[in-house]
Write a structure and sequence with these properties.
Length: 131
Amino acid sequence: MKKAGEKDMSVKTVKSMIAWVEENIKGNPTLEGMSCHVGYSAFYCSAKFHEYTGISFKKYIATRKLCLAAEEIAATDQRFLDIAVEYGYSSQEAFTRAFVKQFGRTPGQYRRYGMREGNIAEVREKGSKIC
């Protein structure tokens, strides 16, 4: 059984992991990079990250990138291809497929309806606690 101090250390470590991801989200944050940042093995980091967030590191990264991209789509007139590349997608098509899978509409549909229909709130709801 864990002592209270050990559990607090795990929460603190995972919060540090999440902060590192947020600082590096537009790059290509890796599990190895994050594990170097916090000083634990990639295996340990992966397990603790999943335990705390309820999803894998990879899924967290993908969802956060889509949430941030959705906010940019709603708030700017930047081209979808530019947003896709900014968040690490190899093509606009790959970005659109991921966007539709996550939010149920294309980036173009999302932008057309804009903030009038509360898209940011919808993104946060569909992205769960991650957005």
